[in-house]
């Protein structure tokens, strides 16, 4: 599993969480989610701390961390796709 430096896991808050979560959203392949605004919470277990919340702009480092984590046995139960092969993002963003 590839664990990036914690500084690489900090995301920019691009819009209010409520607007991102309840607004128009679409599911895209995880690689296409880089640079897009998350419309869902992505919380890997362990450790149980959100890697992304609605309204944050997703980075390659965070998405790679989630995908390699899932491949290593980590679970992301609150994601629309718990395998993180696709990610729910704000439509048109």
UniProtKB/TrEMBL annotation:
Pfam families: OKR_DC_1_C
SUPFAM superfamilies recorded: Ornithine decarboxylase C-terminal domain (SSF55904)
GO terms assigned for molecular function: catalytic activity
Reported cofactor(s): pyridoxal 5'-phosphate
Limits of the Orn/Lys/Arg decarboxylase C-terminal domain: 12-71
Keywords for this protein: Pyridoxal phosphate
Entries under InterPro entries matching the protein: Orn_Lys_Arg_decarboxylase-I, Prn/Lys/Arg_de-COase_C, Prn/Lys/Arg_de-COase_C_sf
Superkingdom in the source lineage: Bacteria
Name by which UniProt lists this protein: Arginine/lysine/ornithine decarboxylase
Natural source organism: Streptosporangium sandarakinum
């Amino acid at each position: 599993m590839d664990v990036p430096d914690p500084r690489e896991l900090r995301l920019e808050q691009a819009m209010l969480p409520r607007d991102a979560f309840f607004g128009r959203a679409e599911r895209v392949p995880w690689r296409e989610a880089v640079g897009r605004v998350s419309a869902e919470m992505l919380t890997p277990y362990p450790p149980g701390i959100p890697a992304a919340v609605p309204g944050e702009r997703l980075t390659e480092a965070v998405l790679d961390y989630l995908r390699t984590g899932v491949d290593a046995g980590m679970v992301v139960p609150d994601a629309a796709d718990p395998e993180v092969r696709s990610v729910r993002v704000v439509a048109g963003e």
